Amino acid sequence: MITCFDTVAKTQIPVSLEAPALPPAANWIDAFRPDAAEIVFLRRALGFEPPTYERLSEIENSSRLYAVGDRLYLSTPMIYQDQGGIVRATPLGFVVGKDRLLTVHFEPIAACDFKRLSGQSGDRPSSGGYGALLAILDSIVDYLADELEMLANQLDTYSHVIFRHDDRRATRASGDDAGERSLRRVLRNLGRVGGHASRIGEGLLGISRMAPFVIHMAGETLLPEARAKIKTIVRDVSSLTDYERHLSDKIQFLLDATLGMINVDQNDIFKVLTLVSVVGIPPTLIASMYGMNFKNMPELDWTYGYPYGLVLIALSALIPLAWFKWRGWF
């Protein structure tokens, strides 16, 4: 699907594949999963071949940032959500020239949604291909910042669950340790948050490499206002990268804390089983001793032999329990 936009007027411009050329006001052409007919149209209207998925997916820097004539070819990984709600990375390609910008992607990327671009305010937008590139990069950085803020809020929630776990321990009416199951869910969620943050970091790294390349290669084509805007974007990306690194450290801390809490719960279970086994040894010894069928056992002729045996068994269980309680073992 091909969509054309005017980033200065912040409007969408209709285009037909039968048109001999692109509308003059369109400085941003977005190609989402272009088919063969759309690729032919782009080749005819723009005068160059749009990059393929395989080309955009290459990871070496020379394949992500290069120039052909007066056009710059850029690509960076960008996050998106699949149908199952899982955050994944997909390549986002840019072909920028003086007059127009072409973006190519094969998954729906929320950061490139024109509605986000339309809702921005502040600096006067620049025209041409580089103006469209700056508008999209600004939108992407803003989107990634929102994603990091969302992850930070999730981590605060998980931190509360982890460290207030003992205060909110569920009853075991069902016979299961609901608290440990809750921590295991938190552990899985922390893994998803860690993967999400890692993919955001990949996108920020791609933009941080892209911006200096554009400044260096654009030369005099890039107006002073545009250079200043790119430098502002670089500073924002640097601060977000530091924040993403901080969140990654926090995620690692919460993962370690969750594993520690799970180990504490498991150790409590083992401690209870150990105490039960130790407390059960003396009564078992006494009961087995008086259960032997020897002929000469004086207690067999006692009037109170049976109550004596029961009291002895009870005391042999209660005395170890009292000692364990005194030592603070439970």
What features would you describe in this structure?
By secondary structure, the chain is of the alpha+beta class. It has two domains: 2-266, CorA soluble domain-like (Beta Polymerase, domain 2); 267-327, Magnesium transport protein CorA, transmembrane region (Methane Monooxygenase Hydroxylase, Chain G, domain 1). The protein is 58% helix and 13% strand. The chain is built from eight helices and seven strands; from the N terminus they run βββαααββββααααα. The chain has helices at 36-46, 53-57, 61-64, 114-118, 128-163, 178-218, 224-290, 305-327; strands at 2-6, 11-13, 28-32, 65-68, 71-81, 87-96, 101-105. The chain has a seven-stranded mixed beta sheet. Strand 6 (87-96) and strand 7 form a beta hairpin. It is rod-shaped, with a radius of gyration of 34 Å. It starts with a strand and ends with a helix.
Write a compact overview of the structure shown.
By secondary structure, this protein is an alpha+beta fold.
